[in-house]
Amino acid sequence: MKKELKIYNSYSREKEIFKPIHEGRVGMYVCGPTVYSDVHLGNCRSFTSFDVVYRYLVHLGYKVRYVRNITDVGHLEGDADTDAEDKISKKARLEQLEPMEVVQRYMNGFHDMMRIFNILPPSIEPRATGHIQEQIEMVQQILDNGLAYVQNGSVYFDTLKFAKQENVYGKLSGRKIEDLLSETRDDLKNQGEKRHPSDFAIWIKAAPEHLMRWNSPWSAGFPGWHLECSVMSTKYLGKTFDIHGGGSDLKFPHHENEVAQSYGACGCAPANYWMHGNMLLMNGRKMSKSDGNSITPEELFTGNSPHVSKGYSPMVLRFFMMQTHYRSTLDLTDEALQAAEKGYRRLMEANKILQAMQHPGKGSAGNLDKEINGLIDQAFADMNDDFNTPKALASLFELVTKINSLKGGQLSFSETTAETLARLQQTFKDFIFNIFGLLNEDAEASGNGIVDGLMDLILDMRQQARTNKDWGTSDKIRDALKELKIQVKDGKEGATWVKG
RNA sequence: GGUCGGUUGGCCGAGUGGCUAGGCAGAGGUCUGCAAAACCUCGUACGGCGGUUCGAAUCCGCCACCGACCUCCA
Q: Nearest nt (C1') to A46 (CA)?
């Protein structure tokens, strides 16, 4: 069942068999948020995608060190050598807060949202401001290696020199080096401090009014955005580690520059596998904080948005994301969310039925047995094929039909063994809760026992009425419950109920 | 403009050179006191035009449209 895992590597643009550097262990780094405003749903998709990667690696038995940073300094709006301002500094200025107050507020919000979506915390969540010393050291290394230059207290990475030297610049993001080289320095004008337009700041001298600043050999200033990821991944995972993830919009310049920096500092590639999640779309366009085409999770939960007709729960959204491969764009529409809601409920309900099942004992490995085992194997094969959650989910839904048929009597337990049923129960649970990371929201909502007790009473009274062929009373109860969004399901062994 | 990716049935979304994706919605049926739920069956979808092939939605070319990146963004 645990065949080899294949991962699409953005760096080679091919699916590759995953081989960790150290057997049984995985080092994974994912670019976290810049905490200068509330997370939007697009961010959540990205972290959900990598959450599933993390969960699946753990499920496969790997010991994973998962590092996901918090960017709390250095992320600029604009270009470093012109009129750029640090995003967090800017927010602090606008709201008259300490920069660290801004960071704390949005970091708390981010963590809350991760919890709501049942996204597991990383093993290490380092912050850029906690690694200033290491960043200064890396700047120095790059300078020592001759791949950076100092200009008025700021330090810039020399991309042109690096491109000529290593021939890797542009590989990740698919940029043509010739284009870069063809723009010779003599042709360039109005470049400010940079010698070449593609050069980027690794240390930035702080303007007098800038709040966040640290002393360095070059100036009182702050580190460049890309540098933190190179520094923190190196510190916690080593110079070269297994997997580096992030949104596809980070490929350039952020990841490209990370690669450059790692080569610039140690002469080696930072990661063996680069994974890029695709964007969440709304109205056919990328959901983006900066251009306003975004929706917050809260707005979706409450339905307080012109984009949706009603609210959708966090797990419905998580399920919605599972239905699409992480490398495909996902278009958010009300209709698709409604479909996801029903699909989610159907899946959870089937699991409930499955877990309550008991094999009658006698059963042989017939056709059904083969089908069930085949579908389980298929689901794992799907996940092994670059984490294909929609395909795995399809296999699961085929199992849902088997489960319901076993319950409804259309299929017989005699066709399957107790062993297979046990495997199905275990695997189904593993997939839904451990790998996909879904939670059973209904169970949590009704967990206090009072509702369950009341419902037992009500359904018992209704059963009395039905035995007496008192259809009026029976239907009155059913309709009244429906008003309360409780659905009564009549079955051979009495009635059950479900929310919604 | 450059680079890359996409265009799948009513909607969302997988996918492979020939064999069912799946979810939701819709139609018919079974079950039911009637429903609901569940189960069974169904629609012969792959942007357009050419080409390669015994065979292409899947490979190649051209065209159209959409998007992402190229500047901050998961």
A: B74
